[in-house]
Design a protein that fits this description.
Layout: H1 3-68, E1 74-78, E2 85-89, H2 104-113, E3 118-119, E4 122-123, E5 125-128, E6 139-143, E7 149-153, E8 159-161
Antiparallel strand pairs: 1-2, 3-4, 5-6, 6-7, 7-8
Length: 163
């Protein structure tokens, strides 16, 4: 009979230890999830900056190719494997531009980066900013929901971080 209370006490202690382990695990998971999501914003910001740099590089490569190819309306870019060609529309100054009246900044993004308007699963907004000062090109702003953005001027080929 004395063995019965000892078993009950042992089960009670095991249950208490199990609950304590579950609470500790829940706290650890919460800390890891919080840490992950706090880093997610930094990862997205860093990736967006890297994309702006890639965009700048591609704009300059296209312009250089335009100069070497005797200034055509469309620049042909060969990939490293030389099997595929990319046709990039340029303006009279040799900078990437779009001949489409509808969504020209999205088209410019596609030509420059060959990827959808997303950065680490965050959508990128592409907007053409109309300016009376700029008569011979477009001003495109590419931005994230957090306010981070960069501008591209198709009249000068300049890419500039806004935030």
């Amino acid at each position: 009979m004395a063995n019965l209370p000892a078993q009950a006490e042992k089960k009670h202690r095991s249950l208490t230890e199990f609950i304590i382990v579950i609470i500790i695990m829940a706290i650890m998971i919460k800390v890891l999830i919080t840490q992950f999501f706090s880093q997610q914003d930094k990862i997205t910001e860093t990736a967006f900056i890297a994309l702006a740099q890639s965009f700048t590089s591609k704009v300059n490569v296209i312009h250089s190719q335009w100069l070497m190819d005797e200034q055509p309306d469309t620049v042909i870019v060969h990939n490293l494997d030389d099997a595929e060609k990319q046709y990039v529309s340029v303006n009279q100054f040799g900078w990437i531009d779009s001949k489409y009246a509808s969504l020209p900044c999205q088209h410019i993004w596609q030509q420059a980066l060959l990827m959808p308007l997303t950065v680490v699963k965050s959508p990128v907004t592409a907007v053409e900013i109309k300016s009376k000062v700029m008569k011979n090109g477009r001003l495109c702003r590419y931005s994230l929901a957090n306010g981070q953005s960069f501008d591209y001027r198709s009249d000068t080929g300049k890419v500039q971080q806004v935030n």
